[in-house]
Amino acid sequence: MLAYVARRLALAVGTVFAAVLITFLLVHAGQGSPGAVKAGAGASAAEIAQANHELGWDRALWVQFADTIGHLIRLDFGTSLIDGRDLGHDLFTRLPVTGSIALLATLLSGVVGVVLGVTAAVRGGRVAQSINSGAGVALSLPAFWVGILFVYVLSLQLGWLPATGYVPFADDPVGWITSLLIPILTLAVGGAAMIARTAAVGMREALQQEHIRTLRAMGTPTWRIRYVHALRYASVPVVSVLGIQFIALFGGSVIIENLFALPGLGQTSQIAAAGHDFPALISVVVVATAVVVLTNLLLDLVVAALDPKVRTA
Amino acid sequence: MSVQPVTDVSSVAGSEVATEPVPPVARRSRVPGFLRRPGGVFGAAWLAFVLAASVTASLWRPYEVDQQDLANRLALPSGTHWLGTDALGRDILSRIFTAGSLPLLASVLMLVVAFGLGLPLALVAAERGRRVEGVISRVTETLMALPLIILLLAVIGAIGNKLYAVMAILGVLISAAVYRVLLGVAKSVRQRLYVDAARVNGLGSLRVNLLHVLPSMARVAAVQAAQLFGIGLLMVAGLAFLGFGPGEPQPSWGFMIQDASTHIYDAPWLMVPTGLILAITVVAANELADAIAGKGKDEKRRPLRRRRVVASSEAPPADPTAVLEVRDLCVAVDDGPQLVTGVSFSLRAGQVLGLVGESGCGKTMTARSLLGLLPGGVSVSGGSILWQGRELVGMSDPQLNAVRGREIAMISQEPMVALDPMFSIAYQLIQPIRRLRGVGRAEARTIAAELLGQVGIVDAQRVLSSYPHQLSGGMAQRVCIALALTGEPELLVADEPTTALDVTVQAEILSLLRSLVRDTGLSVVIVSHDLGVVADICDEVVVMYAGEVAESGTAAAVLDDPAHPYTMALLGANPHVPEGEPVPLRLASIPGTVPPPGSWPTGCRFATRCRFAREQCTVPFVSLAAHGDGSVRCIRVEELARHHATWDAEAVGAETAPDAMPDARPDATVEPAPTAGALS
Ligand code: SF4
C-alpha cells in the first residue's frame, strides 16, 4: 500500500513536471517574447531586447528551465508581465473561487445524477429512456449557452438571482452562495447527466448480480436490496466518475468564470492567454495540474477504501 | 465541456470484446448496422447536412457575413432574414453556416492527429509487449492527467490564436485517451487464439494487424471518434466564446453566442439559432456514437407485462401428507416459448427430492419458480404450486417475501458470487437474522456464529469478519447454507449446490446437507445434473427432459430400474462410480443435445435422440403413465420393460432391444461421448 502511494505520488510529481515542461517549450516555440509583452506595444527593438535581458530570456534554454523549476519548487510563481502583480498571491485568492464552484457543482451533480440514475435503473422502461435521452442532450449542450439560458430565466425573467458578479464569502455568505448559484447550476447540468448515466448503468448492473438473487431469496425488502446493496455496489463507478467530474468542472469553469465575471483561475488564465503573460500561464498550468493530480490521487484512495477487495488486500 | 465521455468507450470496448469471440472479418452488409437505428440515421444525416451546408456556404448564403442591414438590427426571423439579424444587422443564417466549417474541419483535424498517434502507439504497445507498453502507458497516463482547457489556453498564450494548430495540439493530448481504449481492444484481440495461430503460421506483424487487429478495432474506434468529434466542436466553440476564435468580422459559433449573451436584455432570440445548431450538431455526433456502439437496442426489449396466473383448480386432490405440491406447472418467456410444461411432483416433510436432467431441461426454472424468483421476462404461465396448502403461483412480491427465507430458502450454484462482495459475512448474516428472528444485534451475532458452527465452520469469528472474496468456494457455500438457515426454513431449494466445487468439497457439502435433513427435518428440492449426487441424497427423483417430466418415482426405483430411455441414457452416461474406483474410459452417450425451447418435437420430445424411437413416438400422446410409485412418459415403456432394454456403453445393448428396432438410430452407439460425464 505504501509503495503504491509512493508510486502514485511520483507519478503526480512527474505529471506536474510534464505540464511545466510542455508549457515552457510552447512558450519558447512561439514567436513572442516576454520582453515584447512587458515593454508593451510600440516599444523599439532595443527596448524589447533590454527587457528580455532583464527577464533572463537570453540565457540558455536549460538554464531558464532549471530556473523556472527552481522557483516553482519554492512556490515562487513570479510576477505578471503585464501589471507586475504577485502571481502567488493572485492564485491564492483565485483558487478558492474556482475550487468552490467546481466542488459545489460536483456535489450538486452527484446528488441529482444519482437520484436520476437510480430512478432510471429501478423504474426501467419509458422512465429510463427519457432520463437517458435527457442526459444525452444535456451532455451535448455547450455550458456557456446553458449559462446564458439560466441567466435569462432565473435572473432576467424571474429576478431570483443576480446575473453576474461575485461576492466574497467573508463579506456576505448568503450573497456569496447566491452569486455562485447560476454558475453552479450551469456546470451541474452536464455533470448530473454524466453521473446519471453512470449511476443508471451501475445500478442496472448491480441489480443483475447473483448476490441480489440471494437477497431476494431471503425475502429481503426491496428498498434494502436497492438502496443498501445495489447502491453500495454501484458506488464504486459512481465515485470514480464524480472525481473525473470534479476535474472536468474545474477545467470547465474557465468559460463559466468568464461568462459570469467570477474572479477565479479560469478568468486569469483567459487574460493571461490573451495577453501572452508567460509567467501567469505557467503558474496557472501548475496549479491546475496539481489540482487534477491530487484529485486523482484522492480518488484512487477513496475507490480503494470503497472496495473490500482492495481494502483488505 | 469535458473529455470524459471517452471513458464510456472503454466499456463499449470491453463488452464488444467479451461478447464477440471471433470477428476476424468485418461483417458484410449493404447497410451498416448503425444506420439501421433512428439515432444513427439522424446523426449521420445531420452531420452530413451541416458539413455540406457549411463548406458550400459561400455559394448559397443569402448575404455576405459582414453585410450590414442597419435598418434591421436585432431582427426576429422574417422572410428576408430567416433566422434574424445581429446587432449590426448581419444575417444570422449566413453567419451560422459560414462559421460551421471551422469547428467541423478543426475537429476533424483533431481526430486525425489523435488517431494518427493513438492507433499506431496502441498497435506497437500491444505487439512489443510489457516494457514498451509500460513506457507508452506511463506517458499517456501523464497526458491524460493534464487539465486540457487550461493547457490549451497556455498554448494559445504561447503560440497565438491559431485555431487549427491549437486543435492539432489538442489532438496530441487526446491521443492518450484514444491509445488507452484501442490498446485494450488490440490486446484482447491478440490474446485470442487465432491471432497466435496466425502468427505461428508465419504471418508478418503487419498482416496480423491488417487482417485481425484493425477490423476488430473499427467499431470501438468509430464510437470514440464520433464522441471526440462532439467534444472537439464544443472545444472550438468554447475557445471562440473566450475570444480565441477567427475574430470579427469572421463569424464563429462561440463568439456569436458570446455576442448573444451581451444582448440578452434586448434580443434574447439571438442566442437561440446558434446555440441550437451547435447543440444539435453535438447531439448528432453523440447519437451517431451510440448507434455505432449498438446502444439502445437493449432498452427497447422490455415488455414487463407480467401474466397474472390463476391457479388451475382441476388438479387432482393433493397428497395430504405433502408439504409441497406442484401441479402442471408451466413457465414461459413472456410473449415467447414455453420453458417448462405441465410439471408435477410433490414432496413430503423431511424428504429430499432431486430434479435431474441435462441443462436446458427446465430444472432450474422449475426450482426458481418455487420462490417466485424467475428471471426478468420469464413467468409462471400456468399450473399451481401449493406450499403447505397455500398457493404460491400468483402471489405478489410482498406476499412472497413473507415466505422467502422464513419458510423456503435457496442456495445457489455459484457460492462465490452468491454473497454480496461489498459487505462482511457478519453483516450479511446478522441482518437477515435480526429481520427473520426479531432479535437484537448482539444476539444475532451469537446466532450467526452458531449457524456457522452448524454448517461445519470451525473458526466462525474469523469467517464472520471476512469478506466473500476471502473465502474458498467450499467455505462460501457453507456460509450460503448458513444464510439460508437464518430464517429456520422448512424447505431448502438447492440449485446445483456442488457443481462449482472441487470433488472433495462436493462430498463434504453433500454430507452437510444430509445431516441437516436428518437433524432438522428440513425438506430439500435439489437440482442436479449429477446422478451420483442424486443417488447420494435423494428420496424422490424427478427426471426432466425438454421442459417436462420424463420419469419420476422413488430414488431407488428410478435409479436402480430406470424405465424411461432418457433416464437409462443418463445413467449410462453418468455411471455411479463408487469412490476410489477408476472411472470407465468409455461412457455411453446420448447423441445430440436438448432441443431448445420452442422447437420441441411433437410426440415424445426425446424422440430425436432416443435409441428406441419409432414411428409411433412422433405422434402426440398424452399420458404420463403411472409406473410403480411414479410415472414414465414413454409410449413404449411396457414394451421396453418386457425386453429388458438397456442403454449401455457397449454397443451390444442396442441389440437387446425388441424387434430389431427398424427406426433405431444406427449411429447412436458409435457417436463419441460429447456429453459423457459432463451433462451440463
Ligand atoms: S416414447 Fe419413443 S422416443 Fe420417447 S422415450 Fe419412449 S421410446 Fe424413446
Give your account of this protein's structure.
The complex is a heterodimer of chains A (313) and B (680). With 313 residues, chain A is mainly alpha-helical. Chain A has two domains: 2-73; 93-311, MetI-like (MetI-like fold, Orthogonal Bundle). Chain A has helices spanning 2-29, 34-39, 45-55, 61-73, 87-123, 125-140, 143-157, 173-207, 210-217, 222-260, 265-275, 278-306, 308-311. With 680 residues, chain B is an alpha/beta fold. Chain B has a domain at 43-292: MetI-like (MetI-like fold), CATH 1.10.3720. In chain B, the strands form two sheets. An eight-stranded mixed beta sheet of chain B has the order 6-7-8-3-9-10-12-11, sandwiched between helices. Mean pLDDT of chain B is 77; it is low at 1-28, 296-317, 577-587 and 650-680. Chains A and B meet through α1, α6, α7, α8 and α9 of A and α1, α5, α6, α9 and α10 of B. Bound molecules: iron/sulfur cluster (SF4). Iron/sulfur cluster is lined by residues 564-565, 604, 606-607, 610, 612-613, 617, 634-636 of chain B.
Question: What's the quick description here?
Answer:
The complex is a heterodimer of chains A (313) and B (680). Chain A contains 13 helices and no strands.
Secondary structure layout:
The complex is a heterodimer of chains A (313) and B (680).
Chain A: H1 2-29, H2 34-39, H3 45-55, H4 61-73, H5 87-123, H6 125-140, H7 143-157, H8 173-207, H9 210-217, H10 222-260, H11 265-275, H12 278-306, H13 308-311
Helix pairs in contact in A: 1-12, 5-6, 5-8, 5-10, 5-12, 6-8, 7-8, 7-10, 8-10, 10-11, 10-12, 11-12
Chain B: H1 5-19, H2 38-55, H3 57-60, H4 92-128, H5 130-144, H6 148-159, H7 163-191, H8 193-200, H9 205-241, H10 253-262, H11 271-293, H12 297-300, E1 322-333, E2 338-348, E3 352-356, H13 363-369, E4 378-387, E5 390-391, H14 397-403, E6 408-411, H15 415-418, H16 425-437, H17 441-454, H18 460-464, H19 473-485, E7 491-495, H20 503-520, E8 523-528, H21 531-537, E9 540-545, E10 548-554, H22 555-560, H23 565-573, E11 625-627, E12 630-632, H24 637-642
Parallel strand pairs in B: 3-8, 3-9, 6-7, 7-8
Antiparallel strand pairs in B: 1-2, 1-4, 4-5, 9-10, 10-12, 11-12
The complex binds iron/sulfur cluster (SF4).
Iron/sulfur cluster binds at residues 564-565, 604, 606-607, 610, 612-613, 617, 634-636 of chain B.
